[in-house]
């Protein structure tokens, strides 16, 4: 089976072109291929298919084999891949993931994709739709206690659930490996949660680390960056255009502050390598 390894700001996935390949037992394949010691290694598996409600479909699996709704970094990579493969010659097209359609705009210079802008849709702020167990319609700057430590969290869905915590120091110094899984699996989140820990540098710059459900820490998270920007704007920590600084690079996020309006994410999409693998010969 042929594959391509790509990343967006270090958030790396294994991409399978399902115009040419057939993947059986997709969830199990994701687990085996994503293993960084016995497989190719990555934050998960992305299957690129022909869309039914959009030009293309992105089918996403986390590294633990669970299906995921959306990944902002992955969708940028899919956008670049389908353009580079000649599946489209348009600079604007659509990609769906679990029935949700996203609108893509490519920046092309000398026939090379230099950047991808994604209309990520309007943020979901109602607690029961994220979902998060809460006594209020929206969970904005609400206190939660995890392992004896109190955090103020703002919860946002960008097609997948996020809890954003603003902390008073660089997240590089934060105990993410301890608190990340405690947030992910807390009973307040019926479908688990992606947890972002963010430090406001100024109104245009935020530093963030992320713990993604089903994967653990990743070097970047596109939907998490969108959620962090939305949370910062809702709490009046940031302007409407903000750069999210991640371990793997920077993403530019724009949002008007009107919950009916779309969040726009702009960032890179990069190749790592391509190859061929016999998944049946991988160790269990």
Blueprint of the fold:
Layout: E1 2-8, E2 11-17, H1 26-34, E3 44-50, E4 56-62, E5 67-68, H2 72-84, E6 92-97, E7 100-109, E8 112-119, E9 142-146, E10 149-157, E11 161-166, H3 176-184, E12 194-202, E13 205-212, E14 216-218, H4 222-234, E15 241-246, E16 249-254, E17 264-267, E18 270-276
Parallel strand pairs: 2-3, 4-6, 11-12, 13-15
Antiparallel strand pairs: 1-2, 1-18, 3-4, 4-5, 6-7, 7-8, 8-17, 9-10, 10-11, 12-13, 13-14, 15-16, 16-17
Verbal overview:
- This protein starts with a strand and ends in an 8-residue tail after the last strand.
- Helix content is 15%, strand content 41%.
- It has 284 residues and is α+β, with helices and mostly antiparallel strands.
- The protein is built from four helices and 18 strands.
- It has helices at 26-34, 72-84, 176-184, 222-234, and strands at residues 2-8, 11-17, 44-50, 56-62, 67-68, 92-97, 100-109, 112-119, 142-146, 149-157, 161-166, 194-202, 205-212, 216-218, 241-246, 249-254, 264-267, 270-276.
- It is globular, with a radius of gyration of 18 Å.
- The chain has an 18-stranded mixed β-sheet that branches.
- The model has no long low-confidence stretch (mean pLDDT 97).
The helix-strand sequence is EEHEEEHEEEEEEHEEEHEEEE
Structural class: alpha+beta
Into which percentage range does the β-strand content fall? 35-45%
The amount of helix comes to 10-25%
Unreliable stretches (pLDDT < 50, length at least 5) are none
Question: Helix count?
Answer: 4
Q: If you compute it from the alpha carbons, what radius of gyration comes out, rounded to the nearest whole angstrom?
A: 18 Å
Question: Averaged pLDDT, please?
Answer: 97
Strand runs, count: 18
The rounded distance between the terminal residues' Cα atoms is: 18 Å
Shape: globular
Main sheet characteristics? 18 strands, mixed
């Amino acid at each position: 089976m042929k594959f391509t390894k790509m990343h967006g700001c270090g958030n790396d996935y294994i991409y399978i072109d399902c115009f040419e390949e057939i993947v059986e037992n997709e969830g199990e394949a994701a687990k085996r291929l994503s293993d960084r010691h016995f497989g190719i290694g990555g934050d998960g598996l992305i299957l690129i298919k022909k869309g039914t409600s959009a030009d293309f479909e992105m089918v996403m699996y986390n590294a633990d084999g669970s299906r995921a709704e959306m990944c902002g970094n992955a969708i940028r990579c899919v956008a670049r891949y389908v353009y580079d493969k000649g599946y489209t010659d348009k600079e604007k097209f659509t990609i769906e993931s679990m029935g949700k359609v996203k609108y893509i705009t490519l920046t092309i210079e000398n026939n090379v994709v230099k950047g991808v802008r994604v209309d990520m849709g309007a943020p979901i702020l109602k607690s029961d739709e994220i979902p998060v167990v809460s006594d209020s319609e929206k969970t904005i700057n609400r206190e939660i206690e995890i392992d004896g430590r109190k955090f103020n969290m703002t919860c946002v869905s960008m097609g997948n659930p996020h809890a954003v915590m603003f902390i008073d120091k660089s997240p590089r110094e934060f105990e993410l490996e301890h608190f990340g899984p405690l947030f992910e699996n807390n009973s307040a989140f019926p479908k688990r949660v992606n947890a972002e820990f963010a430090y406001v540098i100024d109104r245009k710059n935020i530093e963030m680390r992320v713990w993604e459900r089903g994967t653990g820490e990743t070097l970047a998270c596109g939907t998490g960056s969108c959620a962090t920007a939305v949370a910062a704007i809702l709490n009046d920590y940031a302007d409407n255009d903000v750069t999210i600084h991640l371990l793997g690079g920077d993403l530019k996020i724009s949002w008007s502050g009107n919950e009916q309006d779309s969040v726009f994410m702009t960032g890179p999409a990069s190749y790592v390598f391509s190859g061929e693998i016999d998944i049946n010969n991988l160790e269990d």
